[in-house]
Design a protein that fits this description.
alpha+beta; 6 helices; 12 strands; globular
């Protein structure tokens, strides 16, 4: 593992206060508020610690209720909704200043045999043929003045946190093109893989990078521009097959529509062999701010 990935795992390794009560720390990842993927991942850890180890997460559905405070710890309260023969259900509330900032349902499913099918993985250049987001950003800074290609600032933030991203920029939608699309290779940084029990949590953490930003691509500009308000409203993940983030995963992100100040985005994560490991969906706020009179 890298130093950055080790720090990320320590951030996600929340403290147990009681059987259903946990405390996580906050971190400034470079956004104006808490990164949503951090809160989702810590909430998933809290839920997982109330479930037998042989029952992995099957899906999660989260609502972001309030912006998180970068300077305060987060209390995670788990409610044990159901313990069935095949499925286990948990509700998690993430709390700061005595009010919830996130509410999430998590379902766990005992592994079983069943029918198996999936769509083919899109054709994309291999990660070895692409440059990292940090390298592309450095080249952009050193080159002649011009618009930043894509969402490189977000990718730099991800790599500082411990997740390397290599975008296939030729397959990314340009301003005026709809729908918004991105094709990204992602993996954990460093030469040593993280412990096996952390891969699902790391996938949840990384799944929020670049989703709402993809919806902004057809309209130009950049994530975080002053005249725009952009924020995740909800986030869902379905875990289809076990994932290993020590090797490259292809994240295919599509934003088919934006309307009424909101955008809908979906994603699919494949491994190198083409197996569909997880699917994501999100609706985000994408509001143009009006100048104050």
């Amino acid at each position: 593992m890298s130093v950055r990935l080790d720090q990320l795992l320590k951030l996600l390794d929340i403290e147990t206060l009681d059987a259903n009560l946990f405390r996580g720390q906050s971190r400034d990842d470079g956004f104006k508020q808490l990164y949503g993927g951090q809160v989702v991942a810590q909430a998933l850890v809290a839920a997982t610690r109330t479930v037998p180890a042989d029952r992995p997460a099957q899906s999660l559905h989260a609502y972001f209720l309030r912006p998180g405070d970068l300077h305060l710890p987060i209390i995670y309260e788990v409610e044990r909704i159901r313990d069935g023969g095949s499925f286990t259900t948990r509700r998690v509330q993430a709390i700061q200043n005595s009010v919830p900032i996130l509410s999430m349902m998590v379902s766990f499913h005992a592994p079983e045999e069943g029918w198996d099918h999936q769509p083919a993985m899109p054709e994309v250049p291999p990660p070895e043929a692409l440059k990292s987001g940090t390298r592309l950003y450095e080249e952009w800074q050193a080159g002649p003045p011009g618009p930043t290609p894509g969402l490189l600032g977000v990718k730099v933030i991800a790599e500082r946190a411990g997740i390397e991203i290599r975008p296939a920029l030729d397959l990314q939608s340009k301003p005026g093109e709809t729908p918004g699309t991105q094709r990204l290779w992602i993996r954990c940084t460093g030469d040593r893989p993280p412990p096996a029990e952390w891969h699902t949590v790391l996938l949840a953490y990384a799944s929020d990078f670049d989703l709402i930003g993809t919806a902004k691509l057809p309209h130009g500009g950049y994530y975080g521009q002053p005249e725009m308000m952009m924020a995740s409203l909800d986030h869902a993940i379905w875990f289809h097959r076990p994932a290993n983030l020590d090797d490259w995963l292809l994240y295919c992100i599509d934003a088919p529509t934006a309307a009424a100040g909101r955008a809908f985005i979906s994603g699919r994560l494949h491994d190198r062999a083409g197996r569909l490991l997880a699917s994501t969906a999100q609706e985000g706020l994408m509001r143009r701010l009006r100048a104050k009179a």
